[in-house]
Specification:
Elements (H helix, E strand, L loop, with lengths): L1 H58 L7 H28 L5 H33 L11 H30 L22 E7 L18 H9 L1 E3 L2 E2 L5 H10 L20 H7 L3 E6 L16 E4 L5 H15 L5 E7 L9 H10 L9 H7 L15 H29 L6 E6 L5 E2 L5 E2 L6 H4 E2 L1 E5 L9 E3 L3 E2 L3 H8 L21 E8 L10 E8 L2 E6 L5 E5 L15 H21 L9 H9 L5
Parallel strand pairs: 1-6, 1-7, 2-12, 3-13, 4-5, 4-6
Antiparallel strand pairs: 2-11, 3-10, 7-11, 8-9, 14-15, 15-16, 16-17
């Protein structure tokens, strides 16, 4: 018994001695690596902080009498900061962390750099808006929330950095005991067998911005190219003319009534495209510029990573996309969602702001569509009787400038995916949440009517196409973007939930095309709003019904694509049959929606009001 005790004691002593020896050798190496990374990261963070301070100090002076002088100074600082960012990026990319904690620190450095670049670009965009848009509404990225959210992300990154640096210091002392810290992080690699999927949604993009949908001039050359190389749906309809309602339908595969999204409520559907892709083993990430598609409205559910910015221009969303996939491009198969805000109003992309600066704004022109609504439409006055000649054409040109800008950054995203090797075995869908109206039917902007300029949206499928589809195909039959959910699951070989299995419409016959809004205008009196409108497509025909007044309009879109001739009195039997069908679809969808949603929170109401959705 005594000999066993001696043997055990000797073994313990041997283990301690060995561990101490390993601690000295391996711990010393670990300590050296960690100290080097911490010194490097401290230096980088100091450089980033210096750039932030210089940018902010100059930005605060942009509204003074010497704004043009400080704008020039700002440009100089902005350029120098981007030179610093490029150097930091190259240095981080060259790091080869050997342990898990050092890999985590590298990831934090990427996040810090990405947030700082987004901060710099946001302030730059805002600075030029202030400089060139005197007396007009600023870009929404200039609102206080934009910078506040970026600062919030910076603080989170700083906290995570402090936490990891503390762990690294501790791990360097006890490397033998905490051997797990020495294991390099293993990443699941994309074998190439599973289909990767991406959705790029361009907010408020009219279908007629694309050649395939009737554009007379080339506005979006890259999307035109994708339409030629992929599959273009020339009669695609959005489920609503409002953002939350239409995006909910895309993510749930259900119409606005079944999805419980009428009235721009928060996310409430129990179906989720993201969740299905996540369950199938995809890495899921979102990059959104619309302040309504955020964690506050619960659209982050199911995503592994969710980057929400407050109304930034497309270059900032590209920046978030680029840094994320730089870190994760070697991981498992992916699903991503990109939501670009351009060309949503106000119509000032970086390009169009430059246009205003160089060409000048025509005297007396109203450039804020919300102003046109308030001055005229809400008072029952026809704006065309009072606006300067050419005012609407001028707004449409600014809008087209934003569409061109969005097109350029979609190209940059696809080019980046090609550079990172992400296009192999990848299917992309490019679409919009709704269109935009320029007084074609008495209103401006979107959300309040259901005419074609508002619900006819681009829809292009490109990349690794299903066998049923061939590159260069143009599909002219009516389809709805709510078909994206089940169609993408089917294309990826993932089981489609039974409730939406009948809507695998992009690659097979589709379900009825329904669209709706809770913020609608009276069909006759545009000064009255808040009505529930719904529309239904049946072949060439389309009916719009006001469920608050019982009024309805019937159009033949082949003979009357601009919806100027109401046929309800000429073809009453057709109108009655389609109205009955729409009422039936609405009733069945409401039955399926057993769970009723709550009214919007005060915060969401505030956002909706700031965007002109609510009074």
């Amino acid at each position: 018994m005594k000999s066993k005790f001696v043997i055990v004691s000797l073994l313990v002593i041997a283990v301690v001695v060995a561990c101490n020896f390993i601690l000295i050798v391996r711990g010393g190496r670990t300590s050296e690596e960690y100290e080097l990374m911490l010194e490097t990261s401290d230096r980088m963070n100091a450089q980033l902080g210096e750039c932030q301070n210089m940018l902010l100090k100059t930005f605060e002076k942009l509204e003074g009498d010497d704004s043009r002088y400080y704008a020039a100074q700002y440009k100089k600082i902005y350029d120098s900061c981007h030179d610093i960012y490029s150097g930091i990026e190259a240095e981080i990319a060259g790091m080869e962390p050997l342990r898990e904690l050092s890999a985590e620190l590298k990831d934090v450095l990427w996040q810090s750099l990405a947030t700082n670049v987004s901060f710099s670009d946001t302030v730059a965009h805002c600075a030029y808006s202030i400089l060139y848009s005197k007396g007009t509404p600023l870009e929404m990225s200039c609102y206080e929330n934009a910078l506040a959210e970026l600062f919030g992300d910076m603080r989170k990154t700083e906290a995570r950095y402090k936490d990891i640096s503390t762990k690294m210091i501790e791990a360097s002392r006890y490397d033998c005991i905490f051997a797990a810290n020495n294991k390099q992080k293993k990443r699941a690699r994309n074998s190439g067998s599973a289909l990767n999927v991406g959705i790029i949604l361009i907010d408020a993009l009219r279908a007629d911005m694309l050649r395939v949908n009737g554009a007379e001039t080339t506005v979006m050359p890259f999307l035109d190219q994708l339409a030629r190389e992929g599959v273009a749906y020339t009669d695609a309809t959005s489920p609503s003319s409002t953002t939350i309602t239409s995006v909910t339908s895309i993510f749930s595969g259900t119409d606005p009534y079944e999805a419980n999204s009428m009235g721009s409520r928060q996310w409430n559907s129990d179906l989720s495209l993201v969740r299905e892709f996540s369950r199938a083993g995809r890495h899921t990430a979102a990059f959104t510029a619309n302040s309504l598609i955020t964690p506050r409205t619960e659209f982050d559910k199911g995503f592994d990573s969710f980057y929400a910015r407050y109304w930034p221009s497309a270059n900032i969303i590209y920046n978030e996309f680029r840094f994320h996939w730089y870190r994760h491009r070697s991981e498992k198969p992916f699903f991503f969602y990109v939501h670009i805000i351009d060309p949503h109003d106000p119509y000032f992309s970086p390009d169009s702001v430059e246009k205003l600066a160089t060409e000048g704004r025509p005297a007396g022109f109203i450039v804020d569509p919300n102003d046109i609504r308030a001055r005229y439409i809400s008072k029952g006055i026809d704006p065309l009787d009072h606006l300067k000649p050419g005012n609407i054409a001028y707004l449409r040109e600014l809008y087209a400038q934003e569409a061109r800008y969005a097109d350029r950054w979609v190209k940059n995203i696809v080019d980046l995916m090609r550079e990172y090797g992400m296009l192999d075995n990848t299917l992309l869908v490019i679409t919009a949440d709704h269109g935009e109206e320029f007084l074609e039917h008495g209103d401006i902007k979107h959300s309040r009517q259901l005419y074609q300029e508002l619900v006819h949206v681009p829809l292009v499928v490109w990349g690794k196409l299903p066998e049923k589809l061939s590159p260069g195909t143009i599909i002219g039959a009516p389809h709805s973007t709510l078909e994206i959910f089940p169609s993408l699951l089917a294309a990826a070989g993932i089981d489609v939930p039974e409730r939406v299995a009948g809507r695998v419409g992009l690659f097979a016959p589709g379900a009825p095309v329904i669209t709706a809004t809770k913020n609608g205008l009276d069909l006759d009196d545009k000064s009255i709003s808040g009505h529930e409108l719904a529309a239904l497509r049946n072949g060439n025909y389309k009916i719009i019904v006001d469920f608050d007044t019982g009024k309805f309009r019937l159009y033949n879109l082949v003979r009357d694509p601009m919806e100027k001739n109401d046929l309800s009195g000429i073809e009453p039997e057709k109108a009655a049959a389609m109205k009955k069908e729409l009422i039936g679809v609405r009733r069945e969808s409401l039955k399926k929606n057993m769970k009723r949603g709550d009214a919007p929170s005060e915060e969401i109401k505030g956002m909706l009001k700031s965007l002109g959705y609510l009074k």
